[in-house]
Amino acid sequence: MADPSGRRPRHHPAVNDVLSTLADASAALADVQRRLDLEFRASYPDRVNPAKLVARVKRVQEEVAALKEICRDLLTQKQELIDRIHMSLVAQRGTTQRLLAASGLPLLSDADEAAHNSLNEVIDEWNAHVSPITGRPLCLFSFAWVCVMMLAGDSWRSGNNRW
């Protein structure tokens, strides 16, 4: 326990000896470090100091590891956003097709289909590139949507569905 008067805490004499030895060792190590720094400064130009280079390399390695983790988190968040946007676009496209079919207007044009297919290709390429990095599986919504469309057959294109 610390003494309220601000004096050093009282320990068993053996503990005091260990603390004294550790304090002496710490002072000796600080002196060795100071002497090595002086020797390196005298032997090498400031930018080539091996001790500073080693310290900088260690610092950079730690920063790279932290940046890797931040990038992985960012990619995961970006993937989640892309999945949500893709889900929303697919749902909106389905609704648009149903409304067009129900109103008797012509269905989506070939240009619209080409744009949709191009978007799906870009998303698939993104998923293939990012999935191994983030460790997340590819968008499960796409798989589920394909299954629903296969079960619905062509009725969703002709407007014969009641979804």
Automatic annotation (TrEMBL):
Record carries keyword Coiled coil: yes
Keyword Cell cycle on entry: yes
GO biological process: cell division; chromosome segregation; mitotic cell cycle
Coiled coil: 57-84
Gene Ontology MF term list: microtubule binding
Cell compartment(s), UniProt: Chromosome, Centromere, Kinetochore; Cytoplasm, Cytoskeleton, Spindle
Top-rank taxon, per record: Eukaryota
Domain annotation Ska2 N-terminal: ranges: 12-120
Assigned keywords, A-Z: Cell cycle, Cell division, Centromere, Chromosome, Coiled coil, Cytoplasm, Cytoskeleton, Kinetochore, Microtubule, Mitosis
Subcellular location, principal: nucleus
GO CC, any one term: spindle microtubule
Similarity remark: Belongs to the SKA2 family.
PANTHER family, per the entry: SPINDLE AND KINETOCHORE-ASSOCIATED PROTEIN 2 (PTHR32017:SF3)
Protein name stated in the entry: Protein FAM33A
Source organism of the structure: Dichanthelium oligosanthes
